[in-house]
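Please, structure for the following, as tokens.
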Amino acid sequence: MARVDSLRMRAGQIFCACDIDGLPLDLDSVPKDASILRMALAFGASVLAQVLTLSVLPLASASFAPVSGSLPWPYLALLLGAALAGFPASLLLDRLGRQSAFALGASLGLAGGILAAFAFVERLFPTFIIGLLWLGMAQGFGLFYRHAGAMAGRAGGVVFGAGALGAVIGPFIIEMLSSNFGPLAAASILAASGLAHLITLGLAIGLPGRQIEITLASHDVKRPPLSVLISATSIAALAWLGMNGVMAHAPLAMAGCGLTFSMSSIAMAAHLSAMYWPGFTLGHFVSRFGALPTSLVGLALLSGGGLGLLTQTNLIGFTISMAIAGYGWGMATIGATAAIHRAGHPSAFSLAVHDVVLFLGALTGAVLFGRF
């Protein structure tokens, strides 16, 4: 068995793939904490960008005066970009490594945030849509941090849970920008979303080279059974449908109840933070009760929070319902991810299909529940 650095195996690079000086390379001696910490912080910055974008997007989109009953096209563009990024993200992670793939995604987010902010100020709706499409692509790349973490010492929960830190910081940035920029608050928040991806970019390019093992032929690698892939993907897709229905509908519902932008951003941040808290606490639950049962419990919580949202009229009620829905989404998504990775080593293609189906579910939820 040979163990090599995957960077040495890239096409176009002439390096010896053998261990240095003929000595055996012990992967256990390679420090992994730095890699996990970088991935966790990068994912946290990616979630911060999501919080900033999603908190301002419904009202920013409505300011373009859409026809009553029309679909939220900017939000759909965001989700479409994430879906389109699924296959490129997976294949680039597999072929070129984490640095190149995650750096490309973060670069798209940086450009998208700046472009969306410019388009909002200049009232250029088609350009605004393009900026949101790029931000969505960055989100699609960023979501693969949970798969990278799961394949690096089964630390996917830690990486996923770090997203809660980004969600907690979001409301403070929104409040600061709203207080200082007034009518340009929405544009400044979109620009800040792009800058958050700049943090992700800086962390991604510093990730250490991935170590791989050459053991068996690819057809001998244990893959998750098709039944597990279908079950996990179906549950997660339903969770994404419900979660995006909540996120598309709630800001406009809160505005209809007279809640200010700053107040609604608190509820949205609570929702987004709760989405990632299960990453810190759910490992023992998954180990004891199983990954798929955990995801089903999460789906039930999400449904309960979403239905409760329909009867709320004040900030506390909205916040509690959205937090319950967010926590349920986190349980469902982590359970589905754990089910796939515990059942075997999934191929890049299967991971891409999994995430694309998730984003198609998200698009469906936005279409069903996100009309103005």
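The chain has one domain: 9-19+23-369. Residues 1-31, 211-217 have pLDDT under 50 and may be disordered.
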